[in-house]
Amino acid sequence: MPNLVRPFALALATALVLTGCGAEVTSQDEEGGGDKARGGHYPVTIENCGQKKSYDKAPQRVVTNDVGITEIMFALGLEDRMAGYVMPDDRGDLTSVPWKDAYQKTKWLSKKTINKELVLDARADLVFAGWNYGFNEGEGFSPAELEKVGIDSYVLSESCRNGQGKARGVMPPLEALYTDLRNLGKIFDVEDRAEAFIADFRKQVAAAQAKALKGADRPRVFLFDDGQDKPLTSGLYAGPHDIITKAGGDHVMKDLEDSWATVGWETVVERDPEVIVINDYGDTTADQKRKFLKSYPPLAGVSAIKNDRIVVLDYAELVESPRNPAAIASLAADLRKFAS
Hints:
alpha/beta; 6-stranded parallel β-sheet; 41% helix; globular; disordered N terminus
């Protein structure tokens, strides 16, 4: 089978439909349904990574880190509440995404690592990032350190630490996305918009599952992020687990109780994936990753390599983001093609 690159059309169509939902919310604000007229919306309390947090008003100068987190804000129409975003320049073509206008309107603060000085210079009142998605004690950049300088934090739910060292993940990946949408809806008084997204995403996922392979037909699937000595992959709590599982695949690393983690190649060989999904990002291209997989001697006997069953998905589809539900539908179609 040829290499399959996931089309973006479904994600675009979904975003355009939901932009309509957002317009309805905006009109309600103009008619007196927003926080200025309502007044009684605040204070609100949400739970983020096991910690209850209260807000007396909506943050006005949010700094986000990385593409998925930034697009969660854009999907909710909150670019006017942002001071800017931090993101490497290897996250794909941002001019063709549903949120291209929001990207153009919002300041790209840095293409390097987010840090305390940067968010202070941006006069941020809240940083939306995650553990290993920006927050890192070793770099002196954490919610605790930001609190010392008067800056609030919201931690990406996919990255919540689970109490087992620095392992991440406390809920199923899609529930992490829905949790963040719902929490941000409350924080920024756009709950109707958030609930509209969640309802539509659930419909997309249910429609994809209805057509997905089932039972013994489900192929074993491995997610390859990067790494030659040891592969970085997805565990139970990262986006690819739900994307693979709900698309009709059997995620071979579903027993790894972490989000993103490294494993040994011997484990991959032993579990003999029938399909490999490549995470497309970074300095190493998807084609280079594919060539490595097909030329790496220990993988020569693996079913996915022998049958050339390799799918490429974009980084922004695989980390927690508004692109996750459309990625499920796309992968489900790819798996059905392989089975036919």
